[in-house]
């Protein structure tokens, strides 16, 4: 994801809504666009290969920032909190 233009990355992230019960379809489309932009769509959707550590940390942070507190509490566990693919 380091090779992505910072302005494009920022705009793409800002376009991702906070995930709620009502907007999953929109959220999924936009988070998938982020994965595609970073060249990680197949990795994330297929579960392999695992993204490089730097990309994994970035994706975990972005995904976390785009979940409501209620959703975070339901999704994040000690097993998946550091793995973007499991989240």
How do the helices and strands line up, and which of them pair or pack?
Layout: H1 6-15, H2 24-37, H3 41-46, H4 53-65, H5 69-75
Helix pairs in contact: 1-2
Provide a descriptive summary of the structure in words.
By secondary structure, the chain is mostly helical. The chain has one domain (6-75). The protein contains five helices and no strands. The protein has helices at residues 6-15, 24-37, 41-46, 53-65, 69-75. Helix 1 (6-15) packs antiparallel against helix 2 (24-37). The protein is globular, with a radius of gyration of 12 Å. The model has no long low-confidence stretch (mean pLDDT 89).
Descriptive keywords:
5 helices, 57% helix, 87 residues, single chain, mainly alpha, globular
Number of domains: 1
* Shape, principal axes of CA atoms: globular
- Our measurement of the CA-to-CA distance between the termini, rounded to an integer number of angstroms, reads 18 Å
* Record field, number of beta strands: 0
